[in-house]
Specification:
- This is GNAT family N-acetyltransferase.
- Residues 2-148 form the N-acetyltransferase domain.
- It holds the Pfam family Acetyltransf_1.
- Keywords: Acyltransferase, Transferase.
- This protein is α+β, with helices and mostly antiparallel strands and 148 residues long.
- The chain has a single domain, classed as Gcn5-related N-acetyltransferase (GNAT) (Aminopeptidase).
- The protein contains four helices and five strands.
- The protein has helices at residues 12-25, 32-44, 94-108, 125-130; strands spanning 2-6, 49-55, 58-70, 75-85, 114-116.
- The chain has a five-stranded mixed β-sheet with strand order 1-2-3-4-5, with helices on both faces.
- Strand 3 (58-70) and strand 4 (75-85) form a beta hairpin.
- Helix 1 packs across helix 2 (32-44).
- The longest helix is centred in the C-terminal third of the chain and has 15 residues, at 94-108.
- The mean pLDDT is 94.
Length: 148
């Protein structure tokens, strides 16, 4: 059975292995201590909202949202920055449950919506579209990095 919790500092230890695996998936070196510090800082400073998925009481996925604003619409919205489901728990509806929890949170906090960016070849696009997400076709995304 899937259970979704909004994470507090009490859940950080449960999220750390998932967050570390997520970062390793994106070619980062494993570092559970740095992951713990990062998550703790985000939660204690109120800089992100994290939902934790449990399947039969086993931590198996998470979604992390960062709040921002639209100057044009004068409304807040969330950036869905991180979504991860452990490989052993995929295709069980956990990703959909996390995405739906993010949507409900957005509605409950009266935010304009949720934005996400994904790789062109990410198979999760089918899930996003099934759940009502619309692909931008009218703009490009650019990124400048101080570290490149």
């Amino acid at each position: 059975m899937i259970k979704i919790l909004q994470a507090t500092d009490e859940h950080i230890e449960l999220i750390v292995p998932l967050f570390d695996s997520y970062r390793v998936f994106y070619k980062q070196k494993p570092d559970k201590e740095a992951a713990k510090m990062f998550l703790n800082e985000r939660i204690t400073k109120g800089e992100s909202v994290i939902f934790l998925a449990l399947f039969d009481d086993v931590p198996c996925g998470f979604i992390q949202l960062y709040s921002t604003f639209s100057s044009v619409s004068l409304q807040p919205f969330y950036i869905l920055n991180d979504l991860f489901v452990d490989a052993n728990h995929r295709n069980k509806g956990i990703g959909a449950a996390l995405l739906n929890s993010a949507k409900v949170h957005c509605e409950n906090t009266n935010c304009k919506g949720l934005a996400l960016e994904t790789a062109i070849d990410n198979p999760a696009q089918k899930l996003y579209e099934k759940l009502g997400w619309k692909r931008d076709s009218h703009c490009f995304h650019y990124f400048w990095s101080h570290f490149d």
